[in-house]
Amino acid sequence: MDARGWTEEETRLRKAIVSVAKLCFERKLIVGADGNFSAMTSQGTILITPAGAMKGFLEPHHIAHIDRTGRPIDDGPKASSEVGIHLVSYRERPDIRAICHAHPPHAVAMTIAEIDLQLPVIPEIIVTIGGIPTAPFGTPGTPELPETIREIIRCSDTVLMKNHGSVTVGPNIMDAFKKLDMLEHTARILWLAHVARGGLSPLPDESVRKLLESRSALGIRTRNTLENRCGM
User: Is this prediction's pTM over 0.85?
Assistant: First the structure.
């Protein structure tokens, strides 16, 4: 325990959340007070970024600490107003330990333009996560929003929320960030292709089949939305 009563694990998770939040701010995956990030402790409690804070300037003591119903554990900062996204995701996915909710600009633009990021176009994405499903629009800051992702988050580690943002999940905060990075990079490539060509063409079914079959030889066991037909 340190002077604040934090365990070694809690200290490490707080620092990791702060680092990823700053990284997202620097890479313009969030701006201002956008987004929220969380990690679950081995005790099942949740450390999450606070309400209304600029995520690029957080320190470990700014992080809120709540239980799995959203109730505060201590007298620290108030949890993000979009805590429901995190509570639903942890409830539906007992295998995950961290969540990134961001507003990646190219990915959000694709949802506004109604361009499907589930299209099998980029080999590396087909082999790893498959594709990126889009949830219907939900009003931010209300109970309506987390309900829009509930079904998709059960079968996908990445989900876009129409006109709003993204949610990526993983066994740790860096893995959740990695998937956010992949999501926005994919959206940027597909957006450029769409602008240059006026549309997108998926790879042929046979090419997709071969790519999915390569997962076993490569030792890749991540959830894959093309394999489990998530959001389709």
Answer: yes
Is the Cα torsion angle 200, 184, 54, 39 positive or negative in sign?
A: positive
Cβ density class 116-148: b for 16+ within 10 Å, e for less: bbbbbbbeebbbbbbbbbbbeebeeeeeebbeb
Q: Which two tokens stand for residue 97?
A: 């330990």
Q: What is the pLDDT of residues 73-115, one digit of tens each?
A: 988 899 988 999 999 999 999 999 999 999 999 999 999 999 9
CATH topology classification for 8-218? L-fuculose-1-phosphate Aldolase (3.40.225)
- In angstroms, the CA 115 to CA 145 distance is 21
What are the residues whose beta carbons fall under 8 Å from the beta carbon of 19, sequence distance 6 or more? none
127 Cα distance to chain centroid: 19
* Helix extents (H) in 80-164: 83-92, 105-112, 123-127, 144-153
Of the CA atoms within 13 Å of residue 121, those in its CB half-sphere come to 20
Sign, CA torsion 166/167/172/173:
positive
Beta strands 46-48 and 36-40 are antiparallel
> In the Cβ-directed half-sphere of 188, how many Cα atoms lie within 13 Å?
9
- Nearest to 39, CA basis, from 72, 10, 76: 10
The residue extents of the domains of the chain are 8-218
Centre a 10 Å sphere on the Cβ of residue 67 and count the other Cβ atoms it contains.
13
Number of helices (H), then strands (E), belonging to the chain: the values are 7, 7
